[in-house]
Amino acid sequence: MASKFVVFGGNGFLGKRICQEAVTAGYQVVSVSRSGKAPHSTELNDKQWMQEVQWTAADIFKPDSYHMLLKDAANVVHTLGILLENENYKKTLSKTPTNDSRSHLLFLGTGPNPLKKESPYFTYEMMNKQSAIMLANTFKQEIIKKSKKEQAKVNGRSFTYISADRGFPMIPSGYINSKREAELEIEKMQEYFRPIIMRPGFMFDEHRNAIGPRSFIHGALELLYCGNKFLLQNKLQFMNELIRPTVSTQQVSHSILTKIENPDFKGVVSLEEILKA
């Protein structure tokens, strides 16, 4: 029987590509989200693999709503998170761009809203940090319930957390701080599973051709990166730290599966390593 692969936020911008990669690799894939619905897509290829995924609704902050899904899971992936403590930036990403390009640089998101705007959970502390720690702890508790022999099979289990390469200009430090704090707490649980910490930069989807704010930002960042590489030849360290390469959701997903399928791997996967995927 195929190993169970559970993706929290599996209908999001990155989450759906992780589900697709896992289905292709032969896993039994479960997507857990607030709505429990598959993402909208007009692509025939998407519709084919989406039929293989179990789309399930649950609340990340209520373990009782999903702990049974983790009972026999071999791999758990947490993709939830926010870049700004305001849900409107994610809505903006799906709109047609305006002439005010400066505003687009503030709206760097990674998926659909996991919670309603009025929710007290829509903070860096709760969404980026506590939701991941709560999920990891719930996974850990399900492992503890197993026999000693099953508990000992640590290399066969993994918990993947989608962190970030670094912070973004004009984005509060709470964003990257919450990510790093979550990483530390998750790595403490390596007695029960292999912690895999992914640190991607700004993400784009290779199969999305629609023009919008995300495409605008992707193009602008690529232009800056190429200018720094070919014109400045990466000679200015502060520019190298500020201008980072973009990465596709497909590259991130492939890298995740590669690390999961290596029973000896645990720890941080840098942006540079993801780009090699």
TrEMBL record:
**UniProt-recorded Gene Ontology molecular function terms:** protein-containing complex binding
Instruction: Give start and end of each NAD-dependent epimerase/dehydratase domain.
Output: 6-79
* Cellular compartments per GO CC: mitochondrion
Top-level division of the source organism's lineage: Eukaryota
The record, for SUPFAM superfamilies, names: NAD(P)-binding Rossmann-fold domains (SSF51735)
InterPro entries listed in its UniProt record: ComplexI_NDUFA9_subunit (IPR051207), Epimerase_deHydtase (IPR001509), NAD(P)-bd_dom_sf (IPR036291)
The protein in question is named: YLR290C
This chain's source organism reads Saccharomyces arboricola (strain H-6 / AS 2.3317 / CBS 10644)
**The organism's lineage?**
Eukaryota, Fungi, Dikarya, Ascomycota, Saccharomycotina
